[in-house]
Task: inverse folding
């Protein structure tokens, strides 16, 4: 007999109470974010055999309340200024329980009828925002890492049509990306069997954007050397500084050379939602494929990645799997989203994006995007005025990098995070350790940014 008989509303309320309690604490300025215990202690905390018999739900939830919640990274805390992870919008949090309850599988439409329709709808909405046209289509993905791998697989199918059957041994094929592209690009190139060295780095300009002249020169070099260019990858919203590559110039060069343009818009594609910031992604409509993480600037929970293609047929050629027990019929006639994804069983995550969109609305998403960027801009102004810190760039979105003039950024960041005053990150730019914040939380104010600078200046590295 299975002890877990928690189908009733009481069990749901007990879990909902815990979630609401966590949200209230994590969002409150009166409850400081706990500093998680060191990993060795956490391993010891859970070092026990699995229970032979099921425990009462209250006991299990008490344990989660005591051992898990205080040892989590509290992204909802207004002083958490770390990575590009969202404190998710609430409606998306709650609806996830229904996604698990229904447990649809996106591999085939007959196992996820409404969820498939929703995925087709939300990818349509996103493709329309990007201006990708009538033939566009897409799939949800774990994140931009999977989206980019899938896009480059599809690009490989165009550039090297027999690669799926025969592999790529002996083929001199390359992918070109900015030196500031996310590591998922070179990882994807390695996974395509081309070898990570065939991810050619293109130089950037003084704003950390891919330099179009350097790209043109690289493409000419490749053509003269007889190399096959599988794709060019441009980035909107680079990881380190949030830089937006010039997609108008880059797409024109790709068109000249008849090369597939993949845009990694993991962070920055959401600028499309904002009339104020949309200009930063001008030219995005020329992308052959586009990766877009709704779990970043649309503030959805993980994992809500999206891959879009101007022509959905291009995506359908990424994976050429013969699986008659699952897929039946021609790709364009059958709505099975599993044909477009690396995954087989996949959650119906489109529901949370659709529900969040119903609750927040396009204008609400725009306001979130604008607000996060505006707060960052004012923190940048505070950095400019601060006697101890210098900005490394002018922020184009909600990512800001700066340095302490004492040259002790790595140690200073570690001491600040250990102090419990807040959480910030560190990157390397131009060979130097660099402090980095990402303002992902609408509750974060300019005063939080100023307090962060004050505390950061005071800590003893
Ligand atoms: C520009 C860029 N591309 C790709 C990724 C990877 O995205 P994901 O973690 O959703 O796979 C990130 C993550 O921060 C990113 O900033």
Result:
């Amino acid at each position: 007999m299975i002890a877990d008989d928690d189908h009733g509303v009481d069990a749901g309320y007990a879990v909902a109470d815990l979630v609401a309690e966590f949200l209230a604490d994590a969002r409150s300025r009166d409850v400081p974010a706990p500093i998680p215990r060191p990993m060795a202690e956490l391993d010891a905390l859970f070092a026990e055999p699995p229970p032979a018999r099921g425990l009462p739900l209250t006991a299990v939830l008490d344990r989660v309340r005591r051992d898990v919640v205080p040892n989590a990274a509290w992204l909802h805390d207004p002083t958490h200024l770390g990575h590009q992870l969202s404190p998710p919008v609430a409606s998306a949090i709650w609806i996830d329980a229904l996604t698990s309850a229904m447990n649809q599988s996106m591999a085939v439409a007959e196992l996820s009828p409404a969820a498939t329709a929703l995925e087709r709808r939300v990818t349509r909405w996103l493709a329309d925002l990007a201006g990708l046209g009538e033939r566009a289509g897409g799939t949800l993905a774990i994140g931009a890492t999977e989206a980019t791998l899938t896009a480059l697989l599809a690009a490989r199918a165009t550039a090297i049509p027999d690669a799926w059957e025969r592999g790529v041994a002996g083929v001199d094929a390359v992918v070109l990306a900015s030196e500031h592209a996310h590591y998922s690009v070179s990882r994807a190139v390695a996974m395509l069997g081309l070898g990570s060295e065939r991810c050619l780095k293109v130089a950037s300009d003084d704003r950390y954007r891919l330099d179009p002249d350097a790209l043109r020169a690289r493409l000419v070099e490749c053509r003269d050397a007889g190399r096959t260019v599988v794709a060019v990858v441009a980035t909107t919203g680079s990881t380190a500084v949030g830089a937006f590559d010039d997609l108008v110039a880059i797409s024109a060069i790709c068109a000249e050379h008849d090369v597939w343009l993949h845009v990694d818009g993991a962070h920055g594609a959401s600028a499309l939602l904002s009339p104020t910031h949309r200009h930063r992604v001008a030219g995005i409509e020329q992308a052959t494929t586009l990766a877009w993480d709704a779990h970043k600037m649309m503030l959805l929970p993980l994992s809500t990645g999206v891959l879009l293609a101007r022509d959905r047929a291009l995506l359908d050629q990424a994976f050429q799997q013969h699986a008659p027990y699952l897929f039946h019929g021609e790709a364009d006639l059958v709505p099975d989203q599993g044909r477009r994804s690396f995954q087989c069983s996949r959650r119906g995550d489109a529901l949370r994006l659709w529900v969040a969109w119903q609750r927040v609305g396009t204008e609400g998403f725009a306001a979130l995007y604008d607000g996060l960027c505006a707060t960052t801009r004012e923190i940048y102004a505070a950095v400019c005025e601060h006697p101890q810190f210098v900005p490394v760039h002018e922020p184009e979105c909600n990512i800001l990098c700066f340095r302490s003039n004492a040259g002790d950024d790595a140690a200073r960041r570690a001491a600040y995070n250990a102090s419990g005053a807040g959480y910030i990150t560190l990157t390397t730019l131009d060979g130097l350790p660099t402090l980095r914040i990402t303002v992902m939380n609408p509750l974060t104010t300019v005063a939080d940014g100023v307090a962060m600078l004050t505390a950061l200046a005071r800590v003893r590295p």
